[in-house]
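Chapter summary example: a protein plus L-homoserine.
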Amino acid sequence: MKIAIMGFGVVGSGVGEVVTKNQDILVKKCGEPVEIAHILDLRDFPDSDFKCFTKDFNDILSDPEVGVVVETMGGVNPAYDFTKKLLLAGKQVVTSNKELVATHGTELIKIARENNINYLFEASVGGGIPIIRPMYSCLTAGEATDVFGILNGTTNYILTQMFQCGETFENALKAAQQKGYAEADPTADVEGFDTCRKIAILAALAFGKALDCKGISTEGITKITAEDVAYAEKLGYSIKLIGHSTKAEDGIYAAVFPAFIPKNNPLAGINDVFNGIIVKGEDLGDVMFYGRGAGKLPTANAVVADVVDAIKHKNVNIIIKWEEYNASNQSQGESLKYAYYVRFKGVAPSNIPNCKIVAFSDKNDDEFAVLTEEMSQAQLEEFKNSLKNNQALAQMRIVG
Ligand code: HSE
């Protein structure tokens, strides 16, 4: 089988490395050798062992021997245009591009189905963790009720470095970039947009409906302070960036937010670049997936596993239930209840209603924090308003 790689960055070059290094294994798994025939990239790589670079997409599109194309370019354009043309030409596409899958997955999966081929995207969520395939091929006997977890390696690495190793945000981010974890524009990591795309993909697989990322409430890690971390530690919690999707009364809901996680919940112990995803099912209970969520070789392994699957399914479409969803049906979570951590300025009133725990700062007598009972967003606003002499400085949901 001749394959092509579009985008020779961190993941694309990792795919080249894995295909070369594991050739014997791939021959056994696929029943035929896997040869990289073209690598598309606008940059020059004079020192690379590969000699099949091109800057012209048509070299791939018009090569009748190329059956599978790896898209590791990232971003929506021109990856969308290229992918569509390849699928329409009967070439299977495998990708790590979560932005493209989250934005145009519905259409690309449909084109693949109509052409009896596959658009596979195992590496788009959770780096090297097998999560996409289990979602569409193993966890299919019943309905999922919830999917949530740590979906971004960069932010989990930054939070671990900052709060367990005393590193600054800037240094931790720089290290994450050097290790090849961060997006080209790391704003997508730290502001939660990357997690937003990933939870949209998981929601589509769990509930069969493609959510619009614009309707997913998204908050990153940039507002978390050392005070919040000190309260979390004191109260027995970790702080993690969480993507959550569930079926609410008024539609499918998804959100991205930093959350307090009780230390006895397995997500609390997931550190560094590792991701952890919990899928809840009515009969199934909880299933958890854990592994390296970013990085060259773990992610490349997931991409190459899709190449193998594509080769094993030439002219057989693997059915992925993933349909359009009217954005106006998307829930904004008004009916959902969470417990909250809220940090207030001022002196704590003697009697605070709807609260389980009140904690005080070791460093600052002019603030306190509470852990509330479960409440809706509207009830939380009422609760904060009821403490009218105390300004709310920070709030986070408690998950787990
Ligand atoms: N920037 C992403 C992360 C890469 O840190 O998780 C893997 O999707």
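Key point: The pocket of L-homoserine is lined by residues 127, 152-154, 181-183, 189, 194, 293-294 (CB under 6 Å).
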